[in-house]
Amino acid sequence: MNTVADGLSVDGVHVWRGDRHVLKGVSLRVAPRQLLHISGPNGTGKTTLLRVVCGLLRPEQGQVSWRGKSISSIRPEYQAALAYASHEPALKADLTALENLRFAVGLKRRVEMDQLRASLEQTGVAGCADLPARVLSAGQRRRVAMARVLAMGATLWLLDEPFTNLDTAGAELMSDLLRAHIEGGGAALVTAHHTLQIGAESHRLDLGP
Amino acid sequence: MNVGALAAFNLIVRRELCLSFRRPDQLLQPLVFFLIVTTLFPLGLSLQLSLLRDMSPGVLWVAALLSSVLSLDALFKSDADDGTLEQLALCGQGLTLIVVAKTLAHWLVSGAALVVFSPLVGTALGIPPSAFGTMMLSLGLGTLTLSWLGAIGAGLTVGARRGNVLLSLIVLPLAMPLLIFGAGATDRAISGTDAVGPLYFLAALCVFACTLAPFAATAALRITLE
């Protein structure tokens, strides 16, 4: 199969979890300026697929390539290009929102505090910057996690259920951020139960049974 | 712009220290355990000072090992539970660097703190001040080695329920040489004989652990991350 020269391609990925055959030969392509919406009922392997694409989980069969090269051969370069937001917001409860961003984004690229504050402002949680993540609501944590994705300045966004816990305004904001990312030349892989209305080029992959 | 390995290492150590100091209860727990266990012995053997003095190296070292193991469980588990371990694994710095930084930061707040407070415990156990130097050096080498052994164990048990019991079962048998040479060195220092032999053994074990354990711990962690 051909690989996408400047994007992501997944070819015939099989993953077993014990006796369960979770991913049965999944293939997909995401080019720059494209969004791929992965849908399907619970337990069909959406999160597993995203973890495979991240490189956190090695598939038993198949390959994931970034810009035409297998991700295991260009791990640092690939990790620098991606931003992953898991189902959990992945924040340390004892650190403030800003510290959480500083320690997570600071490992990826040199970043100023102002930039981090700006991304918190973009997701509407600038007021929570100096509050410990413990006291934030689930929706606010989700927004802080999204601010982390923004601050990473990555080309490829891998978002697992990014709309969970968000209110209507939050969901709209999320769609706007996704649209801006796609239109700015980025690529995104998003898992979500409901239909996405992004208004940019988007495709859908259904993992249903 | 990419972040250099040294800058990333500093940032992770700072993150770990910051997290430790935000939770003083967890920080102090092993230290208080160490102080209480070691001061219980003089109370129990108050009329037999010579017996206490003979037992003190063993008591000191067993308490140090147990209190270090107590804090090892949290090394990767809290990060794995809240999902930040995945973020660390994807930060582009390589998992080995993260394991090294986290383990050294853990040793700073557990092992090194134990070393600092050991003269206090030594006094309670009747260890002469002339032996404090050797005692602290041996504890420093021993706890650092133990942190590395613990990192391998913590990496393996991060996904297991009740991992802390399993962790003790994995780490404590491996820590026996540390106990033997560490208590041996302290014992020799107390009796005024040359303690250099057991100290060399401890140093060799420490170098062995520092060079090989990071890779073993990374491999263990990678398996459990999947």
Summarize this structure briefly.
The complex is a heterodimer of chains A (209) and B (226). Chain A has 209 residues and is an alpha/beta fold. Chain A has 6 helices and 9 strands.
Shape of chain B: elongated
How far from one another are the termini of chain A? 24 Å
Principal-axis shape of chain A equals globular
Q: For the terminal residues of chain B, how far apart are their CA atoms? A: 29 Å
Portion of residues within helices of chain A: 25-40%
Oligomer: heterodimer
Annotation, overall tally of beta strands of chain A? 9
Residues in helices of chain B, as a percent range: over 70%
What do you see in this structure?
The complex is a heterodimer of chains A (209) and B (226). Chain A has helices at 46-54, 75-81, 97-105, 113-122, 138-152, 168-183, and strands at 8-17, 20-30, 34-39, 61-66, 69-70, 82-85, 156-160, 187-191, 202-206. With 209 residues, chain A is of the alpha/beta class. Chain A has a single domain (8-206), classed as P-loop containing nucleotide triphosphate hydrolases (Rossmann fold), CATH 3.40.50. In chain A, helix 3 packs parallel to helix 5 and helix 4 packs across helix 5. The longest helix of chain A is centred in the last third of the chain and has 16 residues, at 168-183. Chain A is globular, with a radius of gyration of 17 Å. Chain A starts with 7 loop residues before the first strand and ends with a strand. Chain B is mainly alpha-helical. Helices cover 85% and strands 0% of the residues of chain B. Chain B has helices spanning 5-22, 24-44, 49-72, 74-82, 84-89, 95-109, 111-124, 132-157, 163-174, 176-191, 196-225. In chain B, helix 6 packs parallel to helix 7 (111-124) and helix 6 packs across helix 11 (196-225). The A-B interface holds A 54-58, 75-76, 79-80, 82, 84, 86-95, 99, 103-104, 106-110, 148 and B 1-3, 8, 11-12, 14-15, 18-19, 22-23, 82-84, 86-94, 225-226.
